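Students often ask why inverse folding is considered easier than folding. One informal answer: many sequences map to the same fold, so there is more than one right answer. In these notes we will look at a single instance of the problem. The structure comes first.
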């Protein structure tokens, strides 16, 4: 058991329900950092929270001895905490992630005279999150801190998989999570990672992150966007709709064909993986909304994310245009949840600049390609 400090940015669903829980179980003194006053106060008042598993038994666990700091209001204390931590993790969302660079850089400045190692892991739904964070931190460091960083600080990339839906509990800190979870971290060559129970280390993360992002996240997002189009509000109802289920399976067959070819996965094993994931979407103990799972459509139709990245790789691998993924991108382009800032921005761009320009601007797909044409055709034929 460790008795060291773990600073975790983002005391939200994944922060409390997954990463913070594992860190606390591993004996770290967990310090959450967040910008939400209520959350920070509540954590400090109670010092513990409950995690409930979303299954028939609904077993619950207390996560004890946690504290929190406000990123902005308690910046100094947080910098000092990073100065003493063994591990810093994040679950704030890919667009917020680079904003943490300044405070992490200042935390590293505190450590320049020490020989203590620090591991910084971005636990976000994205490829290369920790590297992106490191690239944002590095230019902010003094020469001395860079030297320290090169020797003692690692930013290993990670894949995190656990569905933690919208939370509705009397106690604001209680969090219900699906029983399944997977946290895979790429072990940097020659470096050692702090021990965290339930964290799997691998030499090469690419097969893990691509399998997860292009299956769990692709499938979930297709369910959300097609559900939203059909005015279905819950993920559970959406995935039970036959047409949606067919579209999800079709998209996962396309990404599956790519993953099997690229990573030499066995077809049978990958089919089992897909089936398990669809069962996870159907979990009757999870109440989740299509608007949460579909949130931030601009990010989701970005070049490196769950639709466009596998669609492009599919074209390259098979010299064919993926039909179901094109339809998924078209459905994402139609997501017009008025509560979602990115959805509003995307819809405004389509109205202002036209569909062609919006596809090119947000997906990076060029107009003369078959993929572009197929997304457009799907957009007009999807009802
Ligand atoms: N919820 C889920 O099922 C899964 C989420 N993820 C990923 O985990 C990350 C977090 O997602 P959720 O926990 O669902 O979101 P969430 O919205 O529940 O939590 C995010 C937390 O970050 C905080 N935050 C925002 N800006 C911040 C800042 N500058 N500094 C510190 N904290 C800040 C928010 O106040 C919030 O408490 C995302 O990248 C998501 O893609 C990955 C796998 C599953
Ligand atoms: O968090 P993102 O990237 O917006 O994706 C939405 C959802 O996808 C999942 O990771 C799994 O499909 C969620 O539970 C997650 O919050």
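Output (designed amino acids):
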């Amino acid at each position: 058991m460790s008795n060291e400090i773990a600073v975790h940015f983002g005391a939200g669903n994944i922060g409390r329900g997954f990463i913070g829980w594992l860190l606390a179980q591993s004996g770290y003194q967990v310090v959450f950092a967040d910008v939400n006053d209520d959350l920070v106060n509540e954590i400090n008042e109670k010092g513990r929270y409950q995690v409930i598993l979303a299954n028939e038994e609904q077993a619950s666990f207390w996560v004890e001895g946690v504290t929190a700091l406000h990123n902005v209001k308690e910046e100094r204390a947080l910098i000092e905490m990073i100065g003493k931590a063994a591990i810093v993790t994040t679950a704030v969302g890919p667009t917020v992630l680079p904003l943490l660079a300044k405070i992490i850089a200042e935390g590293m400045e505190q450590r320049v005279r020490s020989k203590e190692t620090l591991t910084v892991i971005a636990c976000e739904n994205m490829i290369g999150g920790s590297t992106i964070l490191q690239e944002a931190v590095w230019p902010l460091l003094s020469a001395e801190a860079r030297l320290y960083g090169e020797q003692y600080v690692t930013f290993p990339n990670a894949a995190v998989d656990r569905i933690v839906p919208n939370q509705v509990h009397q106690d604001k800190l209680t969090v219900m999570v699906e029983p399944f979870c997977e946290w895979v971290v790429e072990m940097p060559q020659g470096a050692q990672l702090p021990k965290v129970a339930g964290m799997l280390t691998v030499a090469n993360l690419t097969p893990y992150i691509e399998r997860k992002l292009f299956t769990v996240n692709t499938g979930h997002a297709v369910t959300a966007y097609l559900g939203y189009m059909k005015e279905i509000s819950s993920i559970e109802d959406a995935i039970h709709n036959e047409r949606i289920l067919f579209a999800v399976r079709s998209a996962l067959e396309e990404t599956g064909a790519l993953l099997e070819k690229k990573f030499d996965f066995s077809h049978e094993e990958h089919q089992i993986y897909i089936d398990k994931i669809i069962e996870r979407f159907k979990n009757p103990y999870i109440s989740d909304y299509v608007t949460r799972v579909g949130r931030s459509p601009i990010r989701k139709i970005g070049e490196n994310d769950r639709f466009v990245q596998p669609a492009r790789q599919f074209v390259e691998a098979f010299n064919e245009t993926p039909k179901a993924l094109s339809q998924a991108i078209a459905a994402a382009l139609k997501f017009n949840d008025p509560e979602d800032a990115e959805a509003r921005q995307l819809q405004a761009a389509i109205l202002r600049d036209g569909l062609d320009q919006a596809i090119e601007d947000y997906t990076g797909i060029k107009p003369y390609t078959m993929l572009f044409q197929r997304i457009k055709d799907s957009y007009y034929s999807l009802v």
